[in-house]
Amino acid sequence: MVLDSETVRSSAACDYLGKELQCSCGRTHSVGVKRVIIESGALDDLPSVIRELGHTSAFVVADTNTYAAAGSRVESLLRKAGLADGILIYRRQGDLVPDERAIGEFFVAVHRPDVIVAVGAGVINDLAKYVGSRLSIPVIIVATAPSMDGFASDSSALILDNLKTSVEVQTVEAIVADVDVLRAAPIEMIRAGMGDMFGKYTALKDWMLGHIVTGEYYCEGVAEMVAYSVEKCIRSTSGLASRDAEAIRNLMEGLVLSGIAMSFVGNSRPASGAEHHISHYWENAFLQLNRAAVLHGTKVGIGTVVVSRIGTALASRAVDFEAARRDAVAFDAARWRSDVERLFGTAAPGIIRHSEEANRNSIDERLHRIDILEREWERIAQVLSTPPSAGQVESLMAAVGAPLRPMDIGVDNGMVEGGVMYAKEIRPRYTVLQLASDLGLLEEFARKAGSEK
Fold first, then answer.
1. Considering Cα of 99, then 65, then 234, then 169, what sign does the dihedral take?
2. In what order do the strands lie in the sheet with 2-3?
3. Integer Cα distance of 187 and 185 in angstroms
4. Residue 16: is its pLDDT beyond 90?
5. Residue 274 to residues 72, 283, 307: CA-CA distances in angstroms?
6. Which of 25, 82, 233, 251 could serve as a FRET partner for 198 with CA atoms 20 to 30 Å apart?
7. What SS3 class is residue 85?
8. pLDDT-based confidence at residue 134 (cuts at 50, 70, 90)
9. Residues 6 or more apart from 299 whose CB is under 8 A from it?
10. Could you read off the pLDDT of 391-438 as tens digits, one per residue?
C-alpha cells in the first residue's frame, strides 16, 4: 500500500491497520492499532475483539462518569464472557487529573491481566496507555465521547511535576466506539472534539514552518491525511447538534484518523501546534488557581482563533529583519526567567530545565533562524496565508455552538497575553509563536490578543 492523495481520500481508519505504507517522504509508515470499530452496537463486539486478539483476561479502568456511560455494561459483558479480571473506578470530587497520584492508583490496582480495557476518552486513555506501556500490557479503548484525537496516537498527555508533558507510549491494540454511546455524550464533549479538529488547521501550518525554518521532518502524505480527517468532520457539522448518528460517526473517525497520522510520524506534530501549546498554558494556569479544568478541545478551538489572527497579521507584515536581529541580541535572560517563574508557578522549574537542556534561548541560534526567515519570507507568508482565516474558523466553531472567545471559558485577558507570550516554552517545537518571537513581534501580538474582546 502506498500513501498518496488517492489512498488518503479513499481510505477509512480501518484501512490503515496492519499494513506498511510506502510513502513519498521516504519513510515506511505503520500503526500499532489492530482493530477499529465505529458503529452502533459496537459494545457487543468487545468480548469477541478481546478473544480475537488472543486475550483471556481483561482489567477495566474508568471514572465515575465513564463507568455510568459504558463501564457498567462493559464490566457486565466481560463477566458474562468469563474475561473479567478486576476493575478500577477513579472517584474524584472534581476532575480526574492524569498526574502522579492517578498513575500510582492505577499501578496499585492493576494485577497481571492479558489486556487493559480503558473506558473513557482523554484522561482515561492517557493513563491506560502510560500504565500499559510501563507494564507491557496491551490496551483496548472503549470510547465514551468523540472529544479528542488521542485514541490512536502513540503519546499520552500527563501532568508530571506540575507540568503538562507528552510521553511516548505504545498505541492501543483496538478502539471500540459504539455510536449509540458517543451520541449520548455531553454536547460540550462533542463540541470539544470538533475544537480539537479545528486546531489541525494551524497545527499543519506550524509543522510546515518548522520544516522551512529548522529543517524538521515533514510528510506531505501525512499532512494531507490530517487535512482530510478535518474535512470529514466538517462535512457533518450540521448534524452534530441533533446528535445525528452519521455525523457523530464521521467525527469519531476523523479523530481516529488524526491519531493514526500522529502514530505514522511518531509524535503529535501533524496535529498539535501553537493552538495546543496555548491550551496547555491555560490548563496550567487553571491548575495553579485550583480552578476546574475546561475540556482540552474547547481550549484548542479558541486557541486556534488566537493563533490564526497572529498568522494572518504576520503574513501581511512588512518585516524589519535588522530590527529583529537587534531584538535578538538584546534578549534579557533574567527577565525571561523571572516571567517564567511568575507565570508557571510550580511548573516553572521544569520549563527552565527543559529550555536550558535544549539551549532554546541561544542568541546565535535565533540569529541563524532570522537569516533563514529573511531568505524564505515569501514562502513563509504564503503558508501563513493559507485558508481558513481566523474569521472562517470562528464561523465553523459557531456552527457547532462552540465557545469562541477566551472569556467564554473564564480565561481573562492576562491569561491570554501570558499564553501568547510564553506558551512556546511548553514544547520545543517551531510554531507561529516562535516565529513572532524571532521577529521581535511577539510581545506586540500578546498585548493585542490580551486586549481583544
1. positive
2. 2-3, 21-23, 28-29
3. 6
4. no
5. 38, 14, 7
6. 25
7. strand
8. very high
9. 195, 278, 279, 282, 283, 409, 411
10. 999 999 999 999 999 999 999 999 999 999 999 999 889 999 999 999
The grid coordinates listed for 265 are 510520524
Burial 135-160 (b: 16+ CB within 10 A, else e): eebbbbbbbbbbbbbbbbbbbbbbbe
Instruction: Compute the radius of gyration of the chain from its Cα atoms.
Output: 22
| 192-451, CATH topology level | Dehydroquinate synthase-like, alpha domain (1.20.1090)
Name the residue ranges covered by the structural domains of the chain. Answer: 40-185, 192-451
Question: How many CA atoms, within 13 angstroms, populate the side-chain half-sphere of residue 76?
Answer: 8
Cell of 211: 520544516
What are the strands of the beta sheet with 115-120, ordered from one edge? 35-39, 174-178, 139-143, 115-120, 58-63, 84-90
Query: Is the separation of the CB atoms in 177 and 252 below 8 Å?
Result: yes
Residue 5 pLDDT more than 70?
Answer: no
Q: Would you state the pLDDT for residue 166?
A: 85
Please enumerate in sequence order all residues whose Cβ is within 8 A of that of 212, keeping only pairs 6 or more positions apart, or say none: 372, 376, 379, 380, 383
The answer to whether 175 and 152 have CB atoms below 8 angstroms apart is yes
**Nearest one of 49, 64, 113 to 86, comparing CA atoms:** 113
Strand pairing class (155-160; 163-168): antiparallel
Instruction: Check: CB of residue 201 under 8 Å from CB of residue 230.
Output: yes
Convert the pLDDT of each residue in 318-361 to its tens digit.
999 999 999 999 999 999 999 999 999 888 998 999 899 988 89
Instruction: Enter the C-alpha cell of residue 63.
Output: 471514572
**CATH code of domain 40-185:** 3.40.50.1970
Three-class HEC string of 44-65: HHHHHHHHHCCCCCEEEEEEHH
Are 226 and 10 in contact, with CB atoms under 8 Å apart? no
- Output the nine-digit C-alpha cell for 95: 476532575
3-state secondary structure of 164: strand
Residue 82 exposed, middle or buried by CB count within 10 Å (0-12, 13-18, 19+): exposed
Is residue 117 helix, strand or coil?
strand
Element containing residue 240 per DSSP (H, E): helix 237-240
